Structures are given as structure tokens and as C-alpha cells.
């Protein structure tokens, strides 16, 4: 998504309005409301307003985890978004367990449904581990452990 920085305020205002309407119509803990929080957080993230984006992503995560379950793919998306934000703010140690959980959820989802999600998740996790100073061998070991954690054979 290309961000027109001149329109961030307009998008932000409309997003807050959508959230307010969604919360009044569907309730504060509806998964669609979480999607709106997440969308606004992504706009703020792209506008480099990371401090404002973080609580919105955390709110979206709390909603989807509580309503859809801890292993739902929407939870994985929120985990990835939060981990990406933490990585952007150089909070790598905080990002790592979130990214790990994100990848385990997607590996298990792919195994259960045959619907592929792993490529981007693996790239994100690999980049994070490399940023943390892990060697290629250490990254390979981490990935193999994740496969086993998801109940799969490494590969």
C-alpha cells in the first residue's frame, strides 16, 4: 500500500469513526472492530507513528484472541503486525516470541487446511533472527524447532 502522507489525518479520522460505529453496533469486542483497529494501526505504522500504532495493534490482538481463539490465523496476523512494529522500534527480544507464535499458528493452519501461509511468515521470522545476530545455522535450528512445535516434520 502506498501511503499518501497528506491524507493520513483524513484516513485516521474516518477510521476512528468506523471504529466508533462498529463498537456501538457490534460491540467493543467484535472481530470486525479488531480489523478496523488493525487497519488504522497499519496506516499509522506506515506514517511512522509507531507509538500511536502499538496500542491499536495490541487492542486488535486482544479482541481476536479472545473471540476467535489463540490459534486462529487472525491472531497470527495481529502477532505478526505487532512483532513487525516491535522490530521497527528495535525491541527485537520482545518481537521474537510473537513472531515465533505467529509462524507456529500458520504452520499448523497450513498443515490442517493445505492453504499455504508459510513463505512470508518464514521470511519475517528469518529477518528478525538475522537482525538479532543469529547465524544461518542457528536460524535453521530455530526453524526446525518451530516445525516440531507445530507438530510437523522439519522441511
Compact summary:
The chain is an all-alpha fold and 155 residues long. It is built from seven helices and no strands.
Strand % is under 5%
Q: For the terminal residues, how far apart are their CA atoms? A: 32 Å
The largest β sheet comes out as: none
> What is Rg?
17 Å
Mean pLDDT: 90
Silhouette: globular
Q: Which segments are poorly predicted (pLDDT under 50) over 5 or more consecutive residues? A: none
Helicity range of the residues?
A: over 70%
Number of helices: 7
The sequence of SSEs as H and E is: HHHHHHH
How many strands in all?
Answer: 0
What is the SS-derived class? mainly alpha
How would you portray this structure in words?
The longest helix has 22 residues, at 92-113. Helix content is 77%, strand content 0%. With 155 residues, the protein is mainly alpha-helical. The mean pLDDT is 90. Helix 2 runs antiparallel to helix 3 (50-68). The protein contains 7 helices and no strands.
